[in-house]
């Protein structure tokens, strides 16, 4: 990828996070570039979701830096600020508001207005319908409350939401965990398209097949540390599995492509 | 395939996008009927009509236009307070201080009025004091992490004491004629205070249904964590909600004083707090947040006032009033639960 030499779209250095006395992240580093899909893999509790939440500002890091397009982010900031800095995200656990319909959920945090104050529902619904159509998502009426959708449908609506925001950096936390085979393939296609559109896509996943199929780089988290980043084309599955389980010791300097 | 985002980033239609994207509204008549009938407002409107028909059968006075106007007039207080209180509940909060704020604002405005302060300033003074109390509630809840029910209940007790202290327990009487004219007069046969309630109701309807703020309120009440994660600025919205709840309580207190010509220390209080929350819940606002409408709150307010009136006209002893209201409240919340179960299936 030619983007390698450019400034990383997203950079983490020495990120640490404690929840009370529990150390969730010990030392996480990451470089993600525009036009690349960067997978983050690791066992349950390795700190993948916490890393995502630190990037978006839901949690603040106790130590370390988060840099977006080379600019260092304040450690205390709200989720609303992340949008402004060009980051959109699909969370694993807190994605959508059940009592609002699909169109409202897709625009939440960035609702279109007309005459300065009035909500532009027509535009909101049209935009939602356009994005869903482009992503070939079939969830029926955009006025359907999200509470009525299945887990898989909610997941694609959440992804469509992030796509609609059209930000240069997209974070996806286990986007395929709730999905069947066909839906997973569909999400893979969407990720490929995002990459082709020049986005920096960071995708947490459990599914190594998925990571090997769609990612350019993979970073392994183990017990709150990033133990290695590899170029997918050059790494074997066994090596990644070894890093995840600890059978292969991690790199001393993390986040550098070996 | 690869044009997905660039196409949308570039504004304006592109050739492939000629084919219109439909929002797929349910347009058939059957669909419309199904939607309307599934709303709590519809159930309530039917209850209102049934109670009305029963009352009309029991008493010839009921359908008298003066009586019908009186029902509307006495529902104004519940409704105006209910707009702010209901919006707050939709947003996931609760305000038990409302009844004491009602009294506080009425006393403040009336004290200023009898000291010859011009009436618009006196009223604004009463409402500003209410707004301050709402802001304090917000601070205690947000920054001291006291649960809303406790914070506002504590505020209720403190304000009740203040209300009694500053007046020495005496009502403020003899409000200027101009204020009484506003409270008691009517335009083309419609009482002024009903017109005020309609304006307040429309304003709140627009706020809830047609602004970003309204969507953010529903989002916070429906799923706070998801709303915040998706960029809703919760603290700002909460502040506005507690202030609005307090201001409508204050406004209701001022309207009541203008209507009766004095500010009474015993008006408002815990019974007002409870009856307003009751009207709001009967009107289909969910105590769990997210769901509810201004139309529903209006019907809830009218229903309470209607029941009151119908029982009096039917010579049914007043004790039955609270029995009926309590039963309706429990029934309404049970229906709300069924509705939520239907809307929000487990994944
Ligand atoms: N809000 C929280 N409070 C306390 N501990 C947390 C919180 N969130 C995550 N943790 C802990 O941090 C560690 C990493 O969790 P998480 O990032 O969710 O892991 P992953 O997504 O990789 O499965 C776990 O030990 C988890 O229990
Ligand atoms: Mg996780």
Automatic annotation (TrEMBL), chain A:
Start and end residues of each ABC transporter domain: 10-248
Keywords: ATP-binding, Nucleotide-binding
Xref: Pfam families: ABC_tran
Listed PROSITE patterns: ABC_TRANSPORTER_1, ABC_TRANSPORTER_2
InterPro entries assigned: AAA+_ATPase, ABC_carbohydrate_import_ATPase, ABC_transporter-like_ATP-bd, ABC_transporter-like_CS, P-loop_NTPase
Signal peptide bounds: none
Tagged with keyword ATP-binding: yes
Nucleotide-binding listed as a keyword: yes
Gene Ontology terms for molecular function: ATP binding; ATP hydrolysis activity
Protein name: Sugar ABC transporter ATP-binding protein
Source organism of this protein record: Aeromicrobium endophyticum
Lineage, highest ranks first: Bacteria, Bacillati, Actinomycetota, Actinomycetes, Propionibacteriales
């Amino acid at each position: 990828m030619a983007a390698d030499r450019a400034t990383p779209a997203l950079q983490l250095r020495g990120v640490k996070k404690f929840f009370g006395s529990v150390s969730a992240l010990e030392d996480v580093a990451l470089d993600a570039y525009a036009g690349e899909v960067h997978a983050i893999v690791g066992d349950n509790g390795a700190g993948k979701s916490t890393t995502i939440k630190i990037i978006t500002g839901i949690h603040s890091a106790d130590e370390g830096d988060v840099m977006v397009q080379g600019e260092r982010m304040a450690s205390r900031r709200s989720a609303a600020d992340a949008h402004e800095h060009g980051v959109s995200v699909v969370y694993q656990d807190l994605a959508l508001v059940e009592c609002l319909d699909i169109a409202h959920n897709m625009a939440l945090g960035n609702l279109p207005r007309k005459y300065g104050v009035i909500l532009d529902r027509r535009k909101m619904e049209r935009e939602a319908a356009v994005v869903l159509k482009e992503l070939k998502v079939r969830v029926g009426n955009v006025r359907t409350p999200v509470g009525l959708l299945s887990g898989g449908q909610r997941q694609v609506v959440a992804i469509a939401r992030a796509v609609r925001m059209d930000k240069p950096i997209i974070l996806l936390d286990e986007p395929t965990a709730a999905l069947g085979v066909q839906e997973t393939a569909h999400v893979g296609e969407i990720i490929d398209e995002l990459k082709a559109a020049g986005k920096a896509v960071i995708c947490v996943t459990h599914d190594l097949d998925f990571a090997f199929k769609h990612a350019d780089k993979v970073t392994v988290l183990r017990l709150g540390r990033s133990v290695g980043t590899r170029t997918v084309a050059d790494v074997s599955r066994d090596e990644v599995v070894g890093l995840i389980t600890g059978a292969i010791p991690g790199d001393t300097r993390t986040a550098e492509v070996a | 395939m690869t044009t997905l985002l660039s196409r949308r980033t570039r504004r304006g239609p592109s050739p492939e996008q000629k084919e219109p994207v439909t929002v797929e509204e349910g347009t058939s008549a059957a669909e419309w009927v199904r939607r309307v009938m599934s709303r709590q407002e519809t159930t309530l409107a039917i209850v209102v009509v049934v109670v009305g028909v029963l009352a009309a059968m029991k008493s010839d006075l009921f359908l008298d236009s003066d009586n019908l106007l009186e029902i509307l007039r006495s529902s104004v207080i519940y409704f105006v307070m209910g707009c702010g209180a209901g919006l707050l509940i939709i947003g996931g909060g609760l305000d038990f201080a409302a009844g004491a704020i009602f009294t506080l604002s009425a006393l403040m405005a009336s004290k200023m009025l009898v000291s010859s302060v011009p009436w618009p300033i006196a009223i604004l003074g009463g409402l500003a004091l209410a707004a301050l109390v709402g802001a304090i509630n917000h601070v205690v809840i947000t920054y001291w992490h006291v649960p809303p029910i406790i914070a506002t209940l504590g505020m209720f007790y403190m304000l009740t004491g203040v209300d009694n202290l500053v007046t020495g327990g005496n009502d403020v009487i003899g409000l200027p004629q101009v204020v009484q004219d506003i409270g008691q007069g009517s335009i083309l046969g419609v009482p002024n205070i009903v017109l005020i309630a309609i304006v307040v109701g429309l304003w709140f309807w627009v706020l809830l249904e047609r602004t970003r703020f309204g969507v953010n309120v529903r989002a916070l009440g429906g799923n706070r964590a998801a709303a915040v994660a998706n960029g809703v600025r919760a603290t700002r919205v909460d502040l506005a909600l507690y202030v609005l709840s307090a201001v409508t309580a204050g406004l209701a207190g001022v309207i009541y004083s203008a209507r009766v010509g004095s500010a009474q220390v015993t008006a408002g209080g815990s019974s007002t707090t409870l009856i307003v929350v009751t009207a709001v819940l009967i009107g289909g606002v969910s105590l769990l947040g997210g769901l509810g409408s201004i139309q529903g709150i209006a019907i809830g307010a009218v229903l309470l006032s209607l029941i009151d009136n119908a029982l009096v006209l039917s010579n049914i002893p007043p004790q039955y009033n609270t029995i009926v209201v309590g039963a309706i409240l429990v029934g309404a919340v049970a229906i709300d639960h069924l509705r939520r179960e239907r809307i929000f299936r487990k994944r």
